[in-house]
Design goal:
The protein is an all-alpha fold and about 325 residues long. The chain has one domain: ABC transporter involved in vitamin B12 uptake, BtuC (Orthogonal Bundle), CATH 1.10.3470.10. It contains 14 helices and no strands. The longest helix has about 35 residues.
Length: about 325
Amino acid sequence: MSPAPLPPPTRNPVVILGTLGIAAALSVLASVMLGSVHLSPREVVAAFLGDGSDLARMLVLELRLPRSLAAFATGGLLAVAGALMQVLLRNPLADPYVLGISGGAAVGALLAMISGLGLAWISGSAFTGALLSTLIVFGLAHGTGSWTPTRLLLTGVVVAAGWGAVITFLLAVRPSPELPGMLYWLMGDLAHARGNALPWLTLFVIVGLALPLGRSLNVLARGPLQAAVLGVAVRRLEWTVYLLAALVTAVAVTTAGTIGFVGLIIPHMLRLVIGNDQRLLLPASALAGGILLTLADTLARTIIAPEQLPVGVITAMLGVPVFLYLLYRSRT
């Protein structure tokens, strides 16, 4: 029996995605214009056309635009991962960090960085760490019977704490000259994320793979028993969702370190505005997450320019009050 068809979204998807698309373009434009040296829209357009000063072309084409695109893709990945985890756990306040996926990815990436390996090895190590964390959490949460969202969540919190201890140990045993760079990376740093097509490729592939599962994800969000009755292969779908979230988180962590709150806040806020239809929520999350992280990175570059803040500091400053408001709102 196939899953029961769901009613169409109450709001026009074309309007929603189109509005988010325009906002995404404006956020990237603002990110390219603002910095320690501000550029006007005319100077940005001239740089794109190959005209203008050498400084403007270097700032736009070599420094700011590649970083802005990396920030957008990373934010989209985190938001999509959060949306998938919230469906999996049937908890609107879940995110990929709470289950230790990002901790495993960070440990794998740090080990590769300490060993002096290249970007490909760092990416592979991050995914291996995320996959290892996935297997540990699922294995421990499953035990001798089937796992429940509560049991999975508690297991993930404990595993995440363990990964945090490993990260602290790795940072403690490294020579001091390497410590600041690693700390910046762990707090979220896009300074070296330019020229990497992997986040964009992963974002397109994951959204493309998840959209056909949209109706099944909608049914799963109502509960595993109802999903099974309606013909959904629940365990296979749950494993698929978790592996997709692990891959997305690993790529995001490899690109920009550990950046909190994007995967938590964006899907939850969108769900309040546009509903819980995953066929609309997933692409909307990719766009909104990209917008948030692009603007946050712009603030990180401009608040104390020419110095820069880790972008994770900005997302935390923005995310904490929003999260507290959402908690307060859920009580009323």
